[in-house]
């Protein structure tokens, strides 16, 4: 059952009406973006995400005050509400509203695994070089080449781990930046709410200076729209940077998998080379 008008406070309704006007002007031909922004603003004003019927009720019953006659379909509203819930779950799963990428943790987990993989290969390589020093001819040269390739592979793996750790530092910087932007937005929102409350009280107690009050309200509306647009721009920029970091992280994971496969192939080649030289020695004797 949808909420009735009496369950909304005047402060909440004023914030919602301002949001409807601003978002309708910002997205005149995109109902999905309009609804995403409106749901975010309603959540900021009330602390909740409502059902699709509630947002349709708001658009229908506040049309006269806002002069916005948009009527998105029920399917479009439901999809926007689903996106809002998905975003909320993602925020809850991250640390302090930050990003759920922890390159440092990935590197910490991969470090012993890589060492375990490289250890046997290096042991085989050491044995191959020792046997190659005791023998003569082409096999020893091949073992030295394999050892050089193994060292290059190990260096590449270490470099990949260092790059993962640098990604963790970049994510931390982004988290701190998001925290600062959020703090500024909350402070600005509190100031706007206090100013609106003072204006409302002034209107109730006296009708003197109505034109000045209306002018202040218009300027506050412009300030609120500006802050909303700035917050949206920061959110988009942060999302773009996070997507870039995720893409780089995925590339590093692919590179790591390739290097692990290469190490395994080299290990097998060294083992086969060792077995081949052992068989040849037995045949000569």
In short:
The chain is mostly helical.
Main attributes of the structure:
about 280 residues; mainly alpha; Substrate Binding Domain Of Dnak, Chain:A, Domain 2; 2 domains; 8 helices; elongated
Provide structural commentary:
This protein is an all-alpha fold and 285 residues long. It has helices at residues 10-26, 31-46, 52-61, 63-66, 74-93, 103-134, 138-205, 210-284.
Distance between the termini: 93 Å
CATH 2nd-level architecture of the largest domain: Up-down Bundle
Q: Overall 3D geometry?
A: elongated
Q: State the domain count.
A: 2
Structural class: mainly alpha
Number of strands: 0
> SSE order, as H and E?
HHHHHHHH
Layout of strands and helices, then pairs:
Blueprint: H1 10-26, H2 31-46, H3 52-61, H4 63-66, H5 74-93, H6 103-134, H7 138-205, H8 210-284
């Amino acid at each position: 059952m949808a909420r009735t008008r009496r369950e909304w406070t005047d402060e909440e309704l004023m914030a919602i009406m301002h949001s409807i006007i601003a978002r309708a002007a910002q997205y005149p031909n995109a109902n999905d973006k309009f609804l995403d922004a409106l749901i975010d603003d309603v959540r900021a004003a009330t602390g909740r995400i409502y059902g699709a019927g509630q947002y349709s009720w708001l658009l229908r019953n506040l049309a006269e005050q806002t002069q916005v006659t948009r009527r998105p379909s029920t399917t479009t509203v439901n999809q926007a509400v689903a996106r809002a819930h998905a975003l909320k779950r993602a925020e809850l799963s991250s640390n302090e509203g930050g990003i759920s990428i922890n390159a440092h943790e990935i590197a910490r987990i991969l470090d012993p695994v890589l060492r375990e993989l490289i250890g046997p290969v290096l042991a085989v390589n050491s044995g191959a070089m020792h046997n190659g020093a005791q023998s003569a001819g082409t096999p020893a040269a091949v073992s030295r080449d394999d050892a050089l390739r193994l060292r290059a592979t190990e260096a590449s793996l270490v470099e990949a781990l260092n790059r993962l750790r640098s990604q963790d530092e970049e994510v931390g910087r982004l988290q701190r930046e998001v925290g600062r932007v959020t703090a500024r937005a909350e402070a600005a929102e509190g100031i706007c709410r206090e100013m609106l409350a003072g204006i409302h009280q002034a209107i109730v107690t006296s009708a003197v200076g109505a034109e000045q009050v209306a002018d202040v309200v218009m300027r506050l509306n412009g300030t609120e729209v500006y802050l909303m647009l700035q917050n949206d721009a920061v959110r988009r920029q942060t999302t773009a940077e996070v997507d870039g970091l995720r893409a780089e992280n995925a590339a590093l994971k692919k590179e790591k998998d390739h290097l692990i496969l290469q190490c395994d192939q080299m290990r097998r080649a060294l083992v086969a080379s060792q077995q081949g030289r052992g068989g040849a020695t037995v045949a000569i004797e």
